[in-house]
Amino acid sequence: MLEKSKRYGAIIRVFLKYNLFSLMYKDIHKDYISNKKCTCALDLKNRSNAAKLRLAFEELGPSFIKLGQMLSKRPDLVPYTYLLELEELQDKVKPLDFDKMRESFETECICEMGKGKHEHNPTCYHCNDILDVFDELDTTPIASASIGQVYQGVLNGKKVAVKIARPNLIDTINLDLEIINDLKPIFIKLMGVGDNFDSDLFLREFREMLHNELDYKTEAMNMMRFYENFEDVKDVIIPKVHLDYCRESVLVMDFVEGTLVKDVDDIGQELKSRYVQLISSSYLKQVYLDGFYHADPHGGNIVVKDGTIAFIDFGAVGKIDDELRRNMLNLFYAINKKKVDMAADAFLKIGKLNKEDLDISRFKWDIDELITKQHRGIGERKSDNYALLALKYNMSLPSAFSTLERALILVEAVCLNLDSNYNVMDEVRPIISKALKERYSPMHAVEFVQMEGDEYVDIFKNLPSGINDVIETIRGYKLERLEAKSNTLKRYRLLGESMRYTLLIALIISSVYLIIQGDFSSLGIVGFLVSLIMSAYTLRSSL
């Protein structure tokens, strides 16, 4: 509680420093769609407010930096002016001395987990000094961020990169997550998110994302999966993981030589175009063929050298299930073929909306505009258009789609910096063709039959009994209806007999009364005789 109170105090001081509490009383104009070129007073005011929020997040540390970065990937929720600022969040902090970093990796002893309790493991950072585990290790970091620091070393004669998490980070982040959950209404107001924002779902995904990034064993598994996916792809490099040396707080991988793509400058346009083609096609492969993609492909996470590219930093990844991937493939196929109706249907399926939920004529008009921009727009980002369209029609896009779209925007920005004439549609066509061939290939059909065969065999095996059940149900229904009709007839018959007996009794009483009175005795005698005849007939009919 003491630590939480201290952290609350620090957050409040930063909020007061940047005057963020005043933003809670200002209208951020959620419906106003901003533009970077806009110079109107309203837009500049919102941009200034967003800048204050960005600076506050940077000062508050890793949890808030990651929160802002995650929000910057949701253009369907956050006002555009805030996106522009949150995209600029810097995750660079002053490096921590290496001796202080030791606390992260020297506490865990893997020797005690081996077959023999006291068996010595040469890769154990607890029993061996880390400087002795590696052939060489430069204790001056080559990169420093709020979550970890990266060092260069040599292992078994090969250059490696060693990423080490900052000590005691998990405690601070868990504390921040509690406070963010406590102050949820305040953050929602500060960031001006849309009405369709599911804060509980967002925070759950944020918590999972942070915990995954804190566990370097998860990142190691991600890298191994990417390595397998690109093992046969020429000129696209995924660093190899040295798994025996990886821990929850330590990640060891091959060192990637080259230049960060954001720093590429004085090379020919032909080579730049080559890099654009490799980046774009390899990323579309991740999305449409593998369903597993790098979720943060900005210019600092892509390295280029001698006509090859390499992806680095796999802490943030995205996954796409088969249904969403199928709908997305249908959407981009329709956009590629300029089929407005098909694109509209696919986009509505992604947003889980029916045609009756919106003005479909206007929606198709906007889809047509989107297709035109996608094919003929030059020198500008096009991936934003999907989120803006969803925002216009208040569509709640799946978080997986929004995360992917944000990643595609980053890739598009990288490619446009290298080639101002870049258009993703130039690379989409072959990928879509390959994806469709795989979807409808005979091998895929055979695999489907093999996977689903047992289920269909069970269905056919149970078919006779199922048909018999249907027949018995119909027969029972018919018998039930016949029984119901019989009961109805019995009720009507009983009612008729009751009325007949009542009529006879009334006739007998009336006849006896007339005979006793004497004035109409002859009429009474006739009535009495008639009633006797009718009674005899009724008794005979009932026998």
Mean pLDDT: 79
* Principal-axis shape: elongated
Distance between the termini: 94 Å
List low-confidence stretches. Answer: 27-33
Return the structural class.
alpha+beta
| Radius of gyration over all CA atoms, rounded | 38 Å
Task: Estimate the strand proportion.
Answer: 5-15%
Largest sheet: 5 strands, antiparallel
Q: Level of helix content?
A: 55-70%
Number of strands: 11
Helices, by number, come to 20
Strand and helix map with partners:
Elements lengths: L1 H16 L23 H20 L1 H10 L8 H7 L11 H4 L28 H4 L2 E2 L5 E2 L3 E8 L2 E8 L3 H14 L1 H8 L7 H16 L1 H14 L6 E2 L12 E5 L4 E2 L8 H22 L1 E3 L7 E4 L2 E4 L5 E3 L2 H16 L2 H12 L8 H17 L7 H9 L6 H20 L6 H15 L2 H20 L1 H55 L3 H22 L1
Parallel strand pairs: 5-10
Antiparallel strand pairs: 1-3, 2-3, 3-4, 4-6, 7-9, 8-11, 9-10
Helix pairs in contact: 2-3, 2-4, 7-9, 11-16, 11-17, 12-13, 12-17, 13-14, 19-20
Description:
This protein is 59% helix and 8% strand. The chain contains 20 helices and eleven strands. The strands form three sheets. Strands 1, 2, 3, 4 and 6 form a five-stranded antiparallel β-sheet that branches. It has a four-stranded mixed β-sheet with strand order 5-10-9-7, covered by helices on one side. Strands 8-11 form a two-stranded antiparallel sheet. Helix 7 packs antiparallel against helix 9 and helix 11 packs antiparallel against helix 16. It is elongated and about 140 Å long. About 1% of the residues have low confidence.
In short:
With 543 residues, this protein is α+β, with helices and mostly antiparallel strands. It is built from 20 helices and eleven strands.
